[in-house]
Amino acid sequence: MGAIGIHHTEVDDAAFDGPANEARLKLDQSASYYRRAFAWADPEGNPETKAGYKFIHHFVDSEGDIGAASSRGCSSGIGVLNGGRGGTTIPESDREGVWRHLAAHLRDADMEPPELKSLRKVELHTAVDQRGHEVRAFETRMNLEDGKLRGYAAVFEVWSELLGGFFFQFRETIRRGAFSDSLARGDDVRALWQHDPNWVLGRTKNETLALLEDTHGLHSIIDPPDTQWARDAVFSIRRGDVDQMSFAFSVDAEEDEEWEFETEDGIARRTVKRAHLYDVSPVTYPAFIQTSISVRSIWVPDNRHLEMPPTMPPIGMPPTEANSVSDGELARLANLRRRLDLADAQFRTRR
Question: What does DSSP assign to residue 26?
């Protein structure tokens, strides 16, 4: 079902409390009743319970009758679509439909709706951890419900920001179903605190970590242990000090990824079609310091794309008048190149 179609009603600009109005809705009503109050319906949820809906924006009286749309509720809903208040977990493909629904109410009130911002670039950083696994961090939000941590460790079908390092940069997207084989095999995936294997929050093997692929991404539900360090971690998440997630993975074969180099903007693009999942993790910072020196542990099929940029002289060659680099910078680049070649050799041996 997803986004609920546009309808036209009266619009009121009075103060609006979404949770309070939702609480006044009648229980176990028909889908048509709930659709009058919300802008999105979960296609996999029960349409006859309000738990299957999101983006309430109508006033509900004490008798449970649904009234006018709230201009403030509509504006607030668009703010959430644009990433406010932690954003939303509805599928990317439904965002525009929900925006159209809310925007229609605002136009009925002769108000210009806020534009729908693009959230296509949500992946923040890339890194390689000490185990040689690729690590990605997304600007997704976790919430605490029934003592369990819930959030998306990965988001599908969105192009990343620029990834990589000094010598090679690219954009990346994770295809829907990329983790399906890993989950179907029953890979023993851990939930770690800050990607540290000394701090295990959950594990699929003993059902303290549940992972589910939906149309939006890789949803994780973590049941943390009742230990002091875990309680401290949960407290930090509850306060909002830590509110991002990331995941560690590897691509096992060349056919599990697809590279495109001839792009309009000249930036290479990588599509991860199938990935081996190792862990998911709440993180404070979405990157590791190894990023700039470990990028070549990602397999790139054409070494010509790793050539030095034309604005820099070849390593070991004196700079020209038109292209001068200090001795210190030249030494730093030479050291980076040696470390890059070493990482490349180690990775190819490991593959």
Answer: P
pLDDT at 285 (0 to 100) = 65
- Cα–Cα distance measured from residue 174 to residue 163, given in angstroms and rounded to the nearest whole number: 13
Could you state, in chain order, the average pLDDT of each consecutive group of 10 residues for the chain (351 residues)? Answer: 91 94 94 95 91 95 96 92 74 89 95 77 45 60 68 81 68 90 93 90 94 87 92 84 83 86 81 92 57 28 37 39 46 54 47 41
Locate the domains of the chain by residue range.
Answer: 2-108, 123-295, 308-351
Helix (H) or strand (E) holding 149: strand 148-155
| Cβ(139)–Cβ(156) below 8 Å | no
- The residue count of the chain comes to 351
* Closest of 314, 308, 345 to residue 330, by C-alpha: 314
Please enumerate, as own/partner, the contacts of 18-22 that have beta carbons within 8 Å and a separation of 24 or more.
18/56, 18/57, 18/73, 18/76, 21/56, 21/58, 21/59, 21/60, 21/73, 22/50, 22/56, 22/60
Per-residue b or e along 40-60, where b marks 16 or more CB atoms closer than 10 Å to that residue's CB: bbbeeeebeebebbbbbbbbb
Whole-model pTM: value is 0.47
